[in-house]
Amino acid sequence: MTANGARIEDYAFLSDTQTGALVSREACVDWLCFPRFDSGACFAALLGKRENGCWRFFPREKIEKSRRRYRGNTLILETELETASGTVRFIDFMPPRGQNPDFIRIVEGLDGEVALQMELIIRFDYGQIVPWVRKRHGGLEAIAGPDGLILRTPIKTHGKDLTTVAEFTIKKGDRVPFVLTWFESHQEPPKPVAADHALRDTEQFWMRWSEQCQPKTLWDDAVKRSLVVLKGLTYAPTGGLVAALTTSLPEEIGGVRNWDYRYCWLRDATFTLIAFMNAGYKEEATQWREWLLRAIAGSPSQMQIMYGVQGERRLPEFEVPWLGGYENSKPVRIGNAASLQFQIDVYGEVLAAMYRAQVAGIQNGESDWALQEGLTKFLESTWQKPDHGIWEVRGKPRDFTHSKMMAWLAFDQAIKLAEACNCGVGEDLDRWRKVRDQVHGEVCQRGYNSAKNAFTQYYGGETLDASLLIMPLIGFLPANDRRVIGTIEAIQRELIQDGFVLRYRPERKNVDGLPGVEGIFLPCSFWLADCLHIIGRKKEARELFERLLDLRNDLGLLSEEYDPGAKRLLGNFPQAFSHVSLVNSALLLSDQHPVIGG
Question: What percent of the chain has pLDDT over 90?
Answer without folding.
Answer: 84
